[in-house]
Amino acid sequence: MQRRHFISLAAAGLAGCAITAPQPSSQEADGAVRRIAFGSCIDQTKPQPIWDTVLADKPDLFIFGGDNVYASDQPWSAAKLAQAYALQDEVPGLVRLRETVPHMAIWDDHDYGLNDGGAEFGHKNGSKAAFLRFWQIPPGDPRRAREGLYYSAMFGKEGKRVQVILLDTRWFRSALKPSDERGKPGKERYLPDADPAKTMLGEAQWGWLKEQLRQPAELRLLVSGVQVVVEGHGWERWGNFPLERQRLYRLIADTQAQGVVFLSGDRHIGALYREATGTPYPFYELTSSGITHPWRDAVEAGPNRLGELFTQQHYGVVDIDWSAATIRLALKDIRGAVQRSQLIRFNELKAK
Ligand SMILES: [Fe+2]
Question: How far is the CA of 156 from the centre of ligand 1 (A)?
Fold first, then answer.
């Protein structure tokens, strides 16, 4: 197969990373990012017509939020993962997006290699090598020299800075506490575990995240495969480790990091959430997890969800209006129609 050269990000340090040429059409001379699209759960064996819609939306940046291929059947093998990536590399719309739109990627359990997997997965070095190859992570990139795949980049100049922080919620994650009533609403697979020894990010990534949150930025997209603020279900979520989620909220408060919005995937649904309890300011979350195979009959309690689940194929969009100082989070369907949206004012996203 001929090796293609996809657009990647210049990885020159943590702050001040630039988007590489060619410049997307909606991005203006000030280098500010205005439209970021986001999606996850991309089964390489299924049709992917949505890419034409995403391309027509002309995002300045696309974030692949995990499950970017499915290769988690056991026994895991490097050959099966390579085959999955090879199939994905032949999807015309996805190839065109990767050739024309700057993009970033983090994995989730199915490209990591084990359904709902964490630190215990024995082949993570093999799946990381395949990830680095497929996503053409350049030599010298910090991800090559440390464990896991967490990463961040900054776009735009002072006053219009967007920081994208990709969290690795697989590599270091402790074992989850299994449900005592598997399948029961609210306890579908896992129970909250307040064991202080359990970790979601691991100490190295926690330390790194603290440094990222200290970087000045107007908007920060914290990308986590696993849902963050969501309540009301017993699938994977940060609430599986309530102390770790408290630690995250406290870290954002202590670093005085303004402008945090969460993006998540994993669930095969689309939804918007808002949490204002135990947070320094309201935390909004956009879950977009339905590029190829949404969970069409999903039903769940949504105590902090904004509106209903969206259970058809979709992608997420973050539109930034710098002059109006607003952000709009949206879920768009396969025709590009907005199905759910939430307008946020920048000045909501800071401690009062
Ligand atoms: Fe998935």
Answer: 31
